[in-house]
Structures are given as structure tokens and as C-alpha cells.
């Protein structure tokens, strides 16, 4: 059981630690990061209940559209809501890169408990693929969400702020929907999911670097 728990939580903690330690300007209080992670963990149960209601009461069980709404829309929307109301408006969100840190914490909290439930049901033999695909994908969707939340937070233009806020929710939903569609609609999904994940990592790391650049400019422009 200890090995199973370790296999379930290790990928999320490792990825979160990597992105947290990349914040070389003003690292977020570890208590805030842990709090965001716990919020992500707590999201799993209400989301599972809502998805169960969709499947049983609303009869949304099969098809790409049902899967997209139940998974991509519901999960990314609730993660965005938690980040927006608990971190985005917080005083500690004081540089653009912070958006990525908090989005990553909430998303990986969610992915970690989801991963634990999956491994309890299916065993540790799928732990490697779970770390490589579902857990990593949640982290990469969070990069896009956090990147645009960071841009929105520090934009001085009302119209641009709105655009960035919409991008912070719509782009992760779109990427999550594409991720799910690959497994549902393509028989040889492995041939597509590998390049898809490579592109996600490539573009995600570019977003991370840009967020660092924005943070550097934001800090240098503050009055001394």
C-alpha cells in the first residue's frame, strides 16, 4: 500500500517542485503553494459527484461531446475558479510567474488524488503511463492557465485583461478536450499522443520562460 501511495503522489510532487524551484525572483510562500495543492485535492470529490450526476441523471455516458464536457470543461473550469478566487486575488500573487505556480499546485493536487484512485483500482503496473500522460497533461494545461492568469493580473489595459482571463480558461479546456479526443477518436492513439505531448511540453516551457521574462520586467519596474 505504501508503494502504491508513493507511486501515485510522486509524479505530482516532483513536477510541482520543479516548477516551484524555477521561480528565482520572489518564490511564493510554501504555505500558499501547499494550500493551493490541498484545494486541488479537495476538488476531486465534488467533480466526481458532478460527473456521476451527468452520467446517471442526465444520461451523458458516451461520445466525444459528453466526455469533453464532463472532463475537459468541468475539471478545467473548477480548477480555474479555485485559482481565481484563492490565489489570483491574493496579495502574494505579485509577479506574472506566480500564475503558473498556483495553477500548477491546484492542478497537480487534483491530478494526484485522481491518480491515487486510479492506481488503487488498476494497480501500480500503470503508474509509469499515468505519470507520463494524465499527470503531466494536467500540469501542462496548468501552464497555459497560469501563464494567461499572470498576464491578466499585471495588464494595465482593461480589454487585454479580459482577453487574457478568457484565454486562461478557454485554452486549457481546448487542450484538455483535444487530449481526450485523441484517446476516444483515434484507434492508434499512441502515434498521436506522443507528438501531442512533445508539443505541449515544448510550448509549455516557452510559456514558462516568457513568464520569467515578464516577472523580471515587472520587478525591475517597481519603485526601489
Automatic annotation (TrEMBL):
Entry EC no(s): 3.4.-.-
- What family is this? Belongs to the protease PrsW family.
Residues passing through the membrane, by range: 6-21, 33-53, 100-121, 127-150, 162-179, 185-202
Domain of life of the source: Bacteria
Q: Which UniProt keywords apply?
A: Cell membrane, Hydrolase, Membrane, Metalloprotease, Protease, Transmembrane, Transmembrane helix
Q: Listed GO molecular functions?
A: metallopeptidase activity
Q: Name one Pfam family in it.
A: PrsW-protease
**What membrane topology does the annotation report for this chain?**
Multi-pass membrane protein
The subcellular location is:
Cell membrane
Annotated protein name in UniProt: Protease PrsW
* Annotated function: Involved in the degradation of specific anti-sigma factors.
Write down the species: Brevibacillus invocatus
Q: Name one GO cellular component term.
A: plasma membrane
GO process annotations (BP)? proteolysis
The answer to whether UniProt assigns keyword Cell membrane to this entry is yes
Cell membrane as a keyword of this entry, yes or no, is yes
User: InterPro entries under this entry?
Assistant: Peptidase_PrsW_arch/bac (IPR023596), PrsW (IPR026898)
